[in-house]
Amino acid sequence: MRLLTILPVFSAFLLHLAAASPRAHVQQAKCRCLPGESCWPKTDIWKRLNGTVDNRLIKVVPIGAQCHDPHYDAEACAALQAQWMNPLLHIESPSSPMQLFFGNQSCDPFTPREQPCELGNLVSYAVNAASPSHIATAIRFAQQHNIRFVNLQLTKLHISFFGRSTGAGALSVWTHHMKSLELLDYKSDVYTGKAIRMGAGVQGSEALEFANSKGLVVVAGECPTVGMAGGFTQGGGHSPLSTEFGMGADQVLEYDVVTADGRTLRASATQNQDLYWALSGGGGGTYAVVTSMTVRAHAAAQVGGGKIQIAANATAPPEVFSKIIAELHKLLPGMVDNGAAIGYLLMAQALTIGPITVFNATGDFVQSIVAAPFLSALDNTGVSYSSEFTTKSYRDHYDHYYGPLPVGSVFSTAVQSGGRLVPRAAVEDASEQVSAAISDIIAQQAIVVGSVGSYAVRYSKNTSNAVLPAWRDTLIQLQVSVPWSTDPAHWQDMVGVQTFINDVLMPKIKQVTPGGASYLNEASIKEQDWKDAFFGANYERLEKIKAKWDKDSFFYSYKGAGSDAWNVNASGKMCRA
Q1: How far apart are CA 350 and CA 506, in angstroms?
Q2: From residue 564, how far is each of 17, 231, 378, 420 by CA, in Å?
Q3: Residue of 441, 515, 433 lying closest to 474 (CA atoms)
Q4: What is the structure's pLDDT at 267?
Q5: What is the Cα–Cα distance from 332 to 344, expressed in whole angstroms?
Q6: Is the dihedral of CA 129, 134, 139, 144 positive or negative?
């Protein structure tokens, strides 16, 4: 992805700070404790916690420490800088956020060596959880000592743009190493068939490989590093297999969880149904900590795939390129009706359509039926393009187009984004307006990525979950992105870009997509109308379920259900609203 010119700076991200008052001592009791305060646990107390979690407590040292005194190591620092955009670097850390903005330059490998390395917005301690008891112990400790709690499964293993996996002064549970995988012959009132039970740390690539070894497929995300049981299924979860099988949340049969009061229990369509409903699409990190989940597994079949590319140096005049964009969007509903899920990436004078995924089909079908109308339209423009069409197993299709496994090639660390769920009706009724808005956005040096498919309910039973209702009528999950710069001199520019995306770029697509909404994992962090945009008609019910299962609002997820019970100020201090 080429480096784009840094966009103009607009207003900075402002945070309201509470004024001091004679009631300050009362307010202090309502706030989570931070390091350096008298309420912060002494070292020996942390040592005792370490013993109770089988020596799995990690005192966080930022991974950028080797680029700063007194730990500076020139060779190690250079290697770190070279890998800074690689998601694996951050996934394998118990503290480093994948979205780099939320590191807040407190220990950035690109800032000057002499600049102090501080925790800043990073968690202070992490429990490398291997069992539900470790998680329950961490929850009780955080409650006893009034410490902020962060559930690292939420976004450390999921492409989420909200910084929900970090928080100043927090104790976190890191479920990354809970990797169990088990094939089940599942039988219940809602489903009978093959299923896979997986630990909270299982990533998409691991689930796909395991399923493939059993002659099965599972619905996983578009990035191989996406964690299955975290924000993916708990947030809804779109997939290359969504047109065939529905959303990630639709696959879940059971969640095993630890609740805010330290209990371990199972939530399904037949037990603890309200909790199961909320966990299945109502937002992660909010209701309980998931330790494992069980999902439907589907019989494997061959997959027809394809990709069409118009090179970045294409000589087509802008008006011709705009016509190509318009033709694509006009044809997308028909492509989906032929069974396709489609990804596309648009930049100024560059277009990639693909991967195209059609389950139980061939590459010939994709070429001659799904893509044929668009290929014909391209031929009529005279623009040069390349294309390929393949027939593979789903595992090999995924590796070819979304890989190489296990990491893939799409690094969300490299961009800042906003998102919009574009209704099918908006494209069918006003494709020219939608296309014109997209053309306008990419003309301002932004990148537009679309995940196209059908996200409707696929199953006659067990269809009640908290997936945002707008998903069911969505044709395109649209992301508007601007590249991230690691240059410290561009920091304020990057902060300004967030406002530019939310206040300038996103309104262009919102204006032409009435009835749309936003995917709560891949939206603008500055979305103001977030309750309606992320949850729609489900919000009131979700808030009630949150209050039932987490009476004290112990779990906090930024712009999640019930999150307005808390305020977090610019220094990371978290206090009751």
Answers
A1: 21
A2: 15, 19, 49, 23
A3: 515
A4: 98
A5: 11
A6: negative
Residue 21 has pLDDT above 80, yes or no: no
> 149 pLDDT exceeds 50?
yes
Contact 538, 466 (CB under 8 A): yes
Q: What is the mean pLDDT of the chain?
A: 90
Q: What is the Cα–Cα distance from 34 to 146, expressed in whole angstroms?
A: 9
Cα distances (angstroms) measured from residue 176 to each of 90, 140, 207: 11, 20, 14
d(CA 305, CA 381) in angstroms, rounded, equals 24
On the 0-12 / 13-18 / 19+ scale of CB atoms within 10 A, 114 is exposed
Structure tokens at 316: 């087509």
* Whole-structure pTM value: 0.91
pLDDT band at 17 (very low <50, low <70, confident <90, very high): very low
- The number of residues in the chain equals 577
* Continuous segment of H or E residues that includes residue 135: helix 132-144
Nearest alpha carbon to residue 301 among 358, 340, 247: 358
Q: Using CA atoms, how far apart are residues 174 and 302, in angstroms rounded to an integer?
A: 36
Residue 318 CB coordination number (10 Å): 11
Beta strands 171-174 and 149-151, pairing class: parallel
Domains delineated in the chain: 27-174 (3.30.43.10), 181-300+536-576 (3.30.465.10), 302-534 (3.40.462.20)
Question: Given its phi and psi angles, is residue 543 left (phi above 0), alpha (psi -120 to 50 degrees) or beta?
Answer: alpha
